[in-house]
Design goal:
This protein is an alpha/beta fold. The protein has three domains: 7-159, Rossmann fold (3-Layer(aba) Sandwich); 164-358, Alpha-Beta Horseshoe (pyruvate-formate lyase- activating enzyme), CATH 3.80.30; 428-517, no CATH class. The protein has helices spanning 32-37, 53-59, 74-81, 97-110, 128-131, 142-149, 198-202, 214-228, 245-258, 270-273, 278-284, 308-316, 337-346, 365-372, 400-418, 421-436, 442-452, 455-468, 472-488, 494-517; strands spanning 7-10, 47-50, 66-70, 87-91, 115-119, 136-137, 164-170, 173-189, 208-209, 232-238, 263-267, 286-294, 321-328, 352-357, 526-530. The strands form two sheets. Strands 2, 7, 8, 9, 10, 11, 12, 13 and 14 form a nine-stranded mixed β-sheet that branches. Strands 6-5-4-1-3-15 form a six-stranded mixed β-sheet, sandwiched between helices. Strand 10, helix 9 (245-258) and strand 11 form a beta-alpha-beta unit. The chain is globular. The model has no long low-confidence stretch (mean pLDDT 95).
Length: 532
Amino acid sequence: MAGNPKVLFSSVFKPFAEADNLYSRLDSKIELFHNQITKYQGIFSPRIHYHTFGLHAIANNLGEASVVLDYPTLDLFIQEIRKGYDYVGIGSITPNFNKVKRMTEEIRKHSPQSKIVIGGFCAMIPDLKQLLDVDYVCVGEGISFMKELLGKPPEFCFRQPDMLSETRELLGVPFFWGDYHPFIAVGLGCPYACDFCCPSHFFGKKHIKLLPTGERIFQEIVRLGKKFRTSSFGLGGDDNFLADPERARQLREQVVKSGMQIKLFLFASADLLAQWEPEQLAEMGASVIWIGRESRSAPYGKNRGIDLKALIDRLREVGIKVILSSILLFDFHTKENIWADVEDHLACRPAFSQFAFYSPMPGSPLYQRMKSEGKLLENIPFEEWHSFKQPWFIHPEFTLTEAEKIQERAYLDDFYRLGPSIVRLIRDELEGYLRMRESGNPRLRDRAEFFAKDFARYRAILRACESLVPKPEMREQAREIRARLEQVTKKIGIIENVGALGLYGFGRFREFRTRHFGDAIQPKTKITYYPG
C-alpha cells in the first residue's frame, strides 16, 4: 500500500453489564474472575480489568503507526473514526456481536473510505460478511494478517507491548494506587484441539510461540517488572504453556539463575504438569495454574490416568494455587451423575473454580456437530452465547432454566463449602510456606520468605472475612487458617485489626451499593499510540 496508512484498532464500546438490551446483558461483565472464576462470591470476588491484549500485540508489531482504543464509549469511537482512518480493526467475542454491528454502521456513516477488519472470536461466526458490512475477517493470528493487508511481508519477530491487568476492587476496597500485573503474550493456542475449545481451533490447532525461548520471556519479566514495580505476571495467549517443555525449562533456569522470586499465572494441561516436579514449577515462579479438568468421564487424553486431586495437593505443598475448570452439560450428563462430577471437582479443593457449560462456539467441532444434529437454538441472540447463564442448545436431560440453576448451585456449593477464593489462596500460600521453610533447597526456603512478606496483610484480610462471610462454617474456615498463620508468625496486631475493621466497612458498603445500584464496574477507556 502506497504512503503511510492510518490504522485504528478498537475493542467494542462500553458500557457493559447493563440491563438486558440490544447491546448488553447483566451477566456479561467484562471480567474473567467476577464473571467466571469467582462468580457468585460477591464482595470476595476480585474485580480485575484487562487491556484488549490482541489489539495491542498487533499494533506493536505492525510496523506502521497505529492507535488502539480500549473500551471507548460509542461517542468517543465515533469521534475517533471521523479522523479518517484507512483501516479500522475491531476485536470482539461473539456475545458482543450487536456492538460490532453498530460500530460498523457508524464507520460506514462517518468514514466511508475506511476498510473494516473484524477479528477475535466474533470472526468465527458463520457467514459474518453476509451479516455485517465489513471488508475483511481475520480468523487466527492477526499480526501476519494485518501486515499482509498493508502490503508487507507477514514475518515478524514479536515485540511485547506494555499491556496489563489492573485490580479495581477487592473486598469492596477501590484500588486507586494502580495495582498492575503485566500480561506477557508468550504464545497462542493449544495443539490438543479439544472439541469445545474455541482458542485452539481459532489458531488452527497450532501452538504458536510468540516468545520462542525462555530467555526472551525472562527478559520481558525483568523489563516489565522494573517498569511497573511488580513481581506478578500473566503468561497469556498460550493455552498450554508446558506444551513446549524446552522453553519452560529455559525459563526456570533463567529465573533460578537470577535469584528473583516472582509470581506467574499460566495455563497447563494435567498430563504435562504431571511430568514436572512441583518444586521445579515453584522454582520457575509458578503461582497460579489453570487446569482444564472438564469431567472425570470425558474422553480427553490430557487427563487420562491423572489423579487430579493428588496433583493439586502436591502443587499446594509448594504454594501453587489452581484454577480448576469443569464443564457442565456434556451429552452424558444426567440429573444424577452431574452432581457426582461436581463433587469430584470439589474434592480437589482448588483455590478457584470455573463451571462452564459445554459450549458450541462457532468454529469449534462441537458447534459443527450440534448444528448437524439440529441441537442449536439459533433464535437465541448472540449476546446470550456464552457459558455462564443458560445454554443455547438442546440437552436431552435439562431445560435451559434447569441448566442455569445447576450451574448456580455448583458455584454456590464451591463458595459455601470451600470458602471464598481469597481465603483459599491464603490457605495454599500458608501451606507452601510451612512446607518450603524447612526445605533443603535454599531456593524454596527463599520462596517461603517471599510468601511471608504478605502475611501481615493476610491476617487483616482473614479477620475481615470472618465477619463478612455469610455462613458460620465459612467463618470457622477463615478463623482456623488465621489461627494457623498466627501460630507460625505472630498474633494479629492493633494496626492489622484496624485494617480489618476498615475492610469490613468497605465490604458492607459494597454489599449495600450492589444491592441498590448493581455491581457493574466499567473498564477504563484508554487510548494508546504506537509509532510503528
